[in-house]
């Protein structure tokens, strides 16, 4: 660009900044006048478009600021997300306006709740329905379980939960995960630096695909993994669907994943109705074929299965990776974890019996470590809902069509709920008084995560074999929380075998 271009750009930037400054100032003045007229009552309330009428009702609408025109408070929201304290955006506004406040982020006017009770009410109420960013809804498609409502949602949720919690599925999952963990860990010492974030993705994907659709290792699985990876890159992106854009590429990859799953479903149907469900696809086929449910087309199966693979690719491996990070930084916790797991390992070696699901679930301190990792890691830091009518929640009024963001991370980092919340302290889970209702890493209410137990199992199997057979030295790395939780350098460590 020549100097003339720079001049024009500079002019428009200055003009834009001046306009925004004026607009904000004018708005602020206007708001202060209104506040004075209302006798110092609720400030910054009553957005246009809110269905709630009447002065009294408007006062109960969460207070806050809409920020700049168009972009609202998005820039600050993103900047805080990238900082070492992502909850600082919420904390600042909570101190100004209270535990539930309004803001304007990512193109939406939203109420944000940092209050555990309000979050619980939102998760349980039928009056709130899911509302996700456009890129997510575009990619997950019309059959998404995250968006599904009413009877269909209850049915599908029940089927998946029922299967994943069944003793047979748990035993199968434990065996698959154990095989995958042992195979993967045995290569780590020779690898030089191991990138835990990448390696744990490999560990969890294969067993998940087996539990979901009975697919074993091979070319199809490798191709699917590749395409699936491409697909989830687009979950948080600009919602523009033109050739070459992120969303476009992800949609194409989703189509390829869907074709593979459709083929598996067709083959299973051709082979005859499965008498006993060995995987989630069997469960869904049994339901559709046996009970012929017109509202549940066969095409729904590939959509559900694709969605169920998302946690296998991101959530579970990320908790494993964060646990390694926090344990590296907290040697006392690592020592106690190792002792507990060595006791189980010696027991198993002496008895010659294989590990069972119950063995891994009996490791008390290991589960304290997992809880603390989930509390601090906040893999799902919030859920989004939309009010389908004006709704009263704990004295607040959420007007019809407003989105509400129930922030789990704010509750998990609130020192009213957890003392020294920024400290990794697995021992806090030993205390009797620890309030489980304020701990919601897996959500709650009608949409409580059906993969909760399987996830805990996978993470404890990984930790057990890692700490009893290996030691490691980690390179410097930091946690990034936006747009999704990940490690800046994928958590490089050097691993050595230990003798027991
Ligand atoms: C550490 C790992 C995981 C975390 C932190 C996690 C977290 C969550 C959260 C917070 C929700 C609630 C979303 C909402 O209310 O809108 C959820 C829903 C869900 N999760 Fe997980 N999840 C994990 C692993 C898994 C696994 C392994 C599976 C399946 C194999 C799974 C399957 C699902 C499904 C199907 C839903 C939707 C439930 C519904 O809307 O009815 N999750 N998960």
TrEMBL record:
GO molecular function annotation: heme binding; iron ion binding; oxidoreductase activity, acting on paired donors, with incorporation or reduction of molecular oxygen, NAD(P)H as one donor, and incorporation of one atom of oxygen
CDD domains: CYP90-like
PANTHER family: 3-EPI-6-DEOXOCATHASTERONE 23-MONOOXYGENASE CYP90C1, CYTOCHROME P450 26
Transmembrane parts of this sequence: 6-25
Lineage of the species this protein comes from: Eukaryota, Viridiplantae, Streptophyta, Embryophyta, Tracheophyta
GO biological process: brassinosteroid biosynthetic process; brassinosteroid homeostasis; leaf development; petal development; stamen development; sterol metabolic process
Domain of life of the organism encoding this protein: Eukaryota
Region described as Disordered: spans on this chain: 39-61
Keywords for this protein: Heme, Iron, Membrane, Metal-binding, Monooxygenase, Oxidoreductase, Transmembrane, Transmembrane helix
Family the UniProt entry places it in: Belongs to the cytochrome P450 family.
Pfam families for this protein: p450 (PF00067)
SUPFAM superfamilies named among the record's database cross-references: Cytochrome P450 (SSF48264)
This protein's GO CC annotations: membrane
Major localization class: membrane
Pathway entry: Plant hormone biosynthesis; brassinosteroid biosynthesis; Hormone biosynthesis; Steroid biosynthesis
UniProt-annotated location(s): Membrane
Cofactor(s) it depends on: heme
InterPro entries per the UniProt record, alphabetical: Cyt_P450, Cyt_P450_CS, Cyt_P450_E_grp-I, Cyt_P450_sf
Residues binding heme: 449
Membrane topology: Single-pass membrane protein
Protein name: Cytochrome P450 90D2
Gly residues: compositionally biased ranges: 39-53
